[in-house]
Design brief:
Layout (H helix, E strand, L loop, with lengths): L3 H4 L3 H18 L2 H12 L3 H37 L4 H27 L3 H25 L1
Length: 142
């Protein structure tokens, strides 16, 4: 049955992949790494950034984790459905998902928001590394 594959994923791998997304995002967006590029691309004053931190950091982490869980779960379903279950095929699938759905949507969004290319490049690169890292975890644990 087609729905069997939807439930035939390793949920531990999905949870670990989602947690790894949070850890990777934390490191990637540190001020000494790419956080300054991100902040400058947002064009927010320091005052607005501090206000945002006070109001919604917990909310942002919860939204981020839920989004990461959904991404990891769907990636696990795609890997189980469309790849051979090998690391190489999972990484290729992760790249294709990124190139076809994430990089293109982010490019359009960045353009319409009037943000600089380096802002797009930073965030799109993060999403690529994230998907590849999730695919690695899903295949090795799953």
């Amino acid at each position: 049955m087609a729905l069997d594959i939807v439930f035939d994923v390793n949920f531990l791998a999905v949870i670990l992949a989602a947690l790894s997304a949070m850890a990777l995002g934390y490191v990637w967006y540190l001020p000494g790494i790419f956080g300054t590029v991100f902040s400058e691309g947002l064009c927010l004053s320091e005052e607005r950034q501090e206000e945002s931190k006070k109001l919604g950091m917990l909310r942002n982490f919860v939204y981020g984790f839920v989004s990461s869980l959904i991404t990891a779960y769907m990636l696990a379903v795609f890997i189980a459905t469309f790849s051979e279950g090998t690391l190489g095929s999972a990484l290729i699938l992760g790249f294709l998902i990124w190139a076809g759905f994430i990089a293109t949507v982010m490019s359009n969004q960045t353009s319409w928001e009037g943000r600089p290319f380096w802002f797009y490049f930073n965030n799109a690169s993060f999403q690529l590394v994230l998907l590849l890292f999730m695919a690695l975890i899903i295949v090795l644990i799953g």
